[in-house]
Amino acid sequence: MTKWSEHAWETIQPIYNKIVEHPFITELKEGTLPEEKFAYYIQQDALYLANFGKVLSGIASKLSDAEHIQDFLGFSTGTIMVEKALHKTFIQSFSVNISTEKSPSCMLYTNYLQTQLAAHPLEVAIAAVLPCFWIYKEVGDYILATQTATNNKYQTWIDTYGGEEFANSVTKAIEISDYIALKTTKDIQKQMLDAFTTASKMEWLFWDSAYQLESWRI
Ligand SMILES: Cc1ncc(CO)c(N)n1
Ligand SMILES: Cc1ncsc1CCO
């Protein structure tokens, strides 16, 4: 029987392909991405991760299996560790201005995840956060496997998401998603798939918004 996660990944293939073809990713891979665009991304991602960590601990508080609770609390702590380690390094070296104003796309994505947690079945909230893990792992692995540039100034970012440690978290998150999908109804499985797809589109949007240096139109 096909696992929910296999079906889900297959469903978002066209979105994933658009992500790895996006100039943000192709230029990040070669180290040619303008620092201004990477700095914009890092600044918005700090705001994103702070919210994402809260959503993950919110999911933990709604779970019942002790192992799963521990895993989600670990993921939540992981986002804070990544935020501190990666973001503070880049924020210093690229002299990023610390802003507290979310871009439209960052606000869309963070609010979407909060809404899934607050007003939808737990299974759906779990499916909504899965692309954040899975797409980043795939993008990290893809860059590591295909990059030709040496001395890439974005290597720390690449190694964070292409590394084994992150892969372990991603494997756990996929396994938990499959476990809960198996125990729920067809209808909720479909809602999980829709949330997974929507969040995957927002992953594309997040990189695109950084590449475009998106701003509020007012
Ligand atoms: C927008 C976004 N999605 C996913 C991750 C990785 O969890 C991240 N750092 N930022
Ligand atoms: C999903 C995710 N993104 C950054 S850290 C983290 C959890 C890893 O444990």
Give a quick set of tags describing it.
single chain, 218 residues, mainly alpha, Heme Oxygenase, Chain A, 10 helices, globular, binds 4-amino-5-hydroxymethyl-2-methylpyrimidine, binds 2-(4-methyl-thiazol-5-yl)-ethanol, EC 3.5.99.2
Write the layout of secondary structure elements.
Layout: H1 4-11, H2 13-21, H3 23-30, H4 35-62, H5 66-93, H6 104-119, H7 122-146, H8 155-162, H9 164-183, H10 186-211
Helix pairs in contact: 2-10, 4-5, 4-6, 4-7, 4-10, 5-9, 6-7, 6-10, 7-8, 7-9, 7-10
The structure holds 4-amino-5-hydroxymethyl-2-methylpyrimidine (HMH) and 2-(4-methyl-thiazol-5-yl)-ethanol.
Description of the structure:
The chain is mostly helical. The chain has a single domain (4-211), classed as Heme Oxygenase, Chain A, CATH 1.20.910.10. The chain is 81% helix and 0% strand. It contains 10 helices and no strands. The structure holds 4-amino-5-hydroxymethyl-2-methylpyrimidine and 2-(4-methyl-thiazol-5-yl)-ethanol. Residues 45, 48-49, 132, 136, 203, 206 line the site of 4-amino-5-hydroxymethyl-2-methylpyrimidine.
Summarize the structure.
It catalyses: thiamine + H2O = 5-(2-hydroxyethyl)-4-methylthiazole + 4-amino-5-hydroxymethyl-2-methylpyrimidine + H(+); 4-amino-5-aminomethyl-2-methylpyrimidine + H2O = 4-amino-5-hydroxymethyl-2-methylpyrimidine + NH4(+). Catalyzes an amino-pyrimidine hydrolysis reaction at the C5' of the pyrimidine moiety of thiamine compounds, a reaction that is part of a thiamine salvage pathway. The chain is built from ten helices and no strands.
